[in-house]
Amino acid sequence: MGDILILVESKGGGLEKMTLELIRGAEGLAKELSTGVSAVVVGADTAPLAESAAAYGLNKVYRLEHTLLQGFQPDAWVGALEWLCKEVSPGIFLISHSFVGREVAPRLAYRLNTEATTDCIGLRIDPADKGLIRTKPIYGGNAVAIVKTEGIPQIVTVRKGIFEPAEPAATRSEVVSMAPPLDESLLRVKSLKTVEQEVVELDKANVVIAGGRGIAEKEDFEVLTDFAKALSKTHGRVLIGCSRPVVDKGWMSSDHQVGLTGSMISPDAYVAIGISGAVQHLVGMIRSKKIIAINTDLGCNMFKVADYGVVGDYKEILPALIKKLEE
Amino acid sequence: MKEPKIIVCAKQIPDPEAPFSNVSVNVEKKEVVVDAPDVISPYDENALEAAIRIKEEVGGKITVLSMGRKVSDTVLRKTVAAGADALILLEDAAFERLDSRSIAFVLSSAIKKIGEYDLILTGRQAGDWDSGQVGLILAELLGIPSISLARSIKIKDDSVVVEKLVPVGYEVVEAELPALVTVSNEVGELRYVARTKMMALLRRPISIPKWGTKQLELSVEALNPVQLMELCPPPDMRRECVFIEGASSDEKAGKLAAVFKELR
Ligand SMILES: Cc1cc2nc3c(=O)[nH]c(=O)nc-3n(C[C@H](O)[C@H](O)[C@H](O)COP(=O)(O)OP(=O)(O)OC[C@H]3O[C@@H](n4cnc5c(N)ncnc54)[C@H](O)[C@@H]3O)c2cc1C
Ligand SMILES: Nc1ncnc2c1ncn2[C@@H]1O[C@H](COP(=O)(O)O)[C@@H](O)[C@H]1O
Ligand 2 pocket by C-beta < 6 Å: which residues? Predict the structure, then answer.
């Protein structure tokens, strides 16, 4: 069987942490299969990233380089990766369940005549047929499915934080340049412009204060901000998060959203205000060290997963709390 | 331009937002049991809303496609009440729990049978298996461009202009029609349909074609079910909650402040 291939992703010029996690995950599987792990770097200027990846003791690091691979244009990336897979025939292709991975994996799998499994939280090898057994939460996290699929390569996307990040190794990897045959006609979607917005990195916060549909008015988020300010004097970085309905109303941008389709975080403390605790929200914050819930409904699910609960109206609790914190 | 023919793919699923105490796992039957009525998968409702807004702006015709082993027209008629023009149910015993490729294959067969189309909209992911694959595979199968994670969709001449969510904000992209777009919740919720309108519609006879493998001329062997080895309940998330009591909000706030001080 061919190597296990992983797709390298970058962040701020360096390797994305999820990529290091993939390397660690791939190493475990490679041992069971007695095969190697290789990685692919995609872009218009892949040298720096390939150098970083080469420090992790991989079998090979493929540089898939072309001017059309500048930025992330899905049509070009899928085309290039399809070509590479046909060239090097990986047995398994591991991809992060990232913005890039979610888009690339299904399309690539289709073209290679196989079926991907997305958002996996566990991977192991079937001793019987060497197939990749995938563990995947379904129904938002209300159940866990264990599935297999036919076809080579076996393609999966892996959820963030499932493996520990890999450490650099003593041996350097061989770097191999590959020139995918791409041309403009491949690009069927034209990028007109990218509008950058300020994004919060909730995973960098010590404390996240999150508001949900229970917050009656947009203006009330100011009270949450005041609360965050008061707490940040003593508790490090405090950021504001929210549940999905708040994003749906347009009160906050999606980078504030916590949950299955938002950020998955594990701060020292998570304060859920007016959030009922739907499972798709819980998967995003359940690994917080302490969970504190403020809710008018004693029966709500959030209290079942919280360490501390206050049954009450945030409109009364929060101003009083801010005063106490400032005393 | 001519008025666009829009197809919205909508899946019927057990309510994914039912409280977790209403959801259980039958390990033997490998089944998730949801004690709540079926709904249209939430992102598919967003897709329908996007379609209706396009129709309001430039006209057009919206056809809703829904596939499954059993698809209920009482759940799906809501799409017509909200503004869709036609509803086609793809129903067959062989359509049970198929893998993403097979679902996309059945949908593509139905779309080919419909014939003409300009724009296909799907949800970003279905709320049952959270897979996020069918739309993108469907576009591959039909050989048309695909754009994922739309927060706004506009038709301009013979192309579609989409604001697509990206990690740094959003990107404005354009593709020629026909094209497929997967829709995210940022598009906005499906408009409210008054109960009276729903009820009136339920009484009005409308023709809802039902197509199975026979009408679509599909061989059952071409369809692969998901290879589900095991289904397990989720890990226990419960914690012992200490409730902060007090006669007044002030008293509760004082105790809560003490909790925060201890966390430091
Ligand atoms: C596929 C899929 C993906 C999803 N992804 C996400 C995701 O990533 N993140 C996410 O959050 N959701 C997600 N959802 C939606 C999720 O299922 C829930 O609908 C959502 O989390 C509910 O948000 P909420 O708790 O704020 O609102 P609600 O469930 O409406 O809860 C509001 C709460 O506020 C309380 N309240 C009301 N008034 C007050 C008051 N004055 N003071 C204090 N409390 C008050 C109420 O008692 C209630 O508990 C997803 C759904 C699907 C199907
Ligand atoms: N059985 C189905 N019937 C109609 N549309 C579907 C079906 N399954 C998936 N889809 C569409 O494909 C999208 C993505 O589904 P999935 O890949 O299963 O997460 C959904 O949001 C629907 O728009």
Answer: B 9-11, 41, 43-44, 65-68, 100, 103, 122-123, 125-126, 129, 131-135
